[in-house]
Amino acid sequence: VPANPASLASAALSGDRRALARLVSFVENRAPGADQAVASLAARRSLGPGSPHVVGVTGPPGAGKSTFTERLISAARARGERVAVVAVDPSSPFSGGAILGDRLRMDRHTLDAGVYIRSLSARGHGGGLSRAAGQVVRVLDACGYDLVIVETVGVGQGELGVMEVADSVLVVLTPESGDSVQAMKAGLLEIADVFVVNKADRPGADALVRELAMAVHLGAGGGWEAPVHAASALGGTGVDAVAASLAAHRAWIVGPGRPTWVARRADGRVRTWLDLVGDDAREAAMKRIDAGTLADLRAGRVEPELLAARSRPA
Length: 314
Ligand SMILES: Nc1nc2c(ncn2[C@@H]2O[C@H](COP(=O)(O)OP(=O)(O)OP(=O)(O)O)[C@@H](O)[C@H]2O)c(=O)[nH]1
Ligand SMILES: [Mg+2]
Hints:
Elements: H1 5-13, H2 17-29, H3 34-40, E1 53-59, H4 65-78, E2 83-89, H5 96-105, E3 115-121, H6 129-142, E4 147-153, H7 157-162, E5 168-173, H8 180-185, H9 188-191, E6 194-197, H10 205-219, E7 228-230, H11 239-254, H12 258-288, H13 291-299, H14 304-310
Parallel strand pairs: 1-4, 1-5, 2-3, 2-4, 5-6, 6-7
Helix pairs in contact: 1-2, 2-6
The chain binds guanosine-5'-triphosphate and magnesium ion.
């Protein structure tokens, strides 16, 4: 396996999975040369033929996102598509369990050469998790995956920011996860292209479906009204309808919804640039500050605002 990002990229493109894994790690950590390697990759995401479908899956912890993702993988494999999954773990380094759970749920695909599953953790990224997710999706895109699924817990703006990389966002809720007002508060209503009330084998699903459908209808604009489904990922019921809605959303962005998609991608490109220069600026500031000043800052002898103003470019 080559060691530098550029040759890793070409090996990954020719189907070397170990090279791909290595490249993703380089990209995740922004190793020297990783940005350039990503920038040199051909982006297929033009919505033209051969362009992948990037699906974001988000929702409250434990809603069934991974179980649903597993169903989507199986359906795509049955269609002969190659699938990559990026499981983003925004939580602390101490909660490795969630990712392990994800791994186990998708376990049946680990021997399938047409499926690539990768976890991204928040460790060491600062605010750069959506930057990392965006760049990794770019790598997977270039490697020719037909379906790229990005799973992340939908709590907090940082995590929802990860969803900006997706073409279509599936929001997974459950009867237990409460009402549509709560979803609205979490910002899930604005980002959802398709809703699924999972665990519909439990009571309360129909009421939440009706409530969500109403909320979606009232807030609808821009030509796409997010369909609301009930499903049980565990039992496999309702999954096909959700997959069909995701396909319909993709058909919409290729057709009449194209300006919406183009605007989203354009915003995403600006945000990636800001994330990159933001990370660089933080790193440079930490390098520049001397030990005495840092000690003064920590001890309260100098205010953060004054210190920031002092190092601001004129
Ligand atoms: N009853 C029921 N349980 C389900 C269903 N789908 C998933 N579960 C269970 O819910 C639990 C959480 O499922 P996951 O797929 O790991 O949920 P998740 O949203 O990925 O969880 P995190 O990634 O940890 O936030 C597991 O025990 C699943 O077996 C469903 O349709 N019905
Ligand atoms: Mg999960």
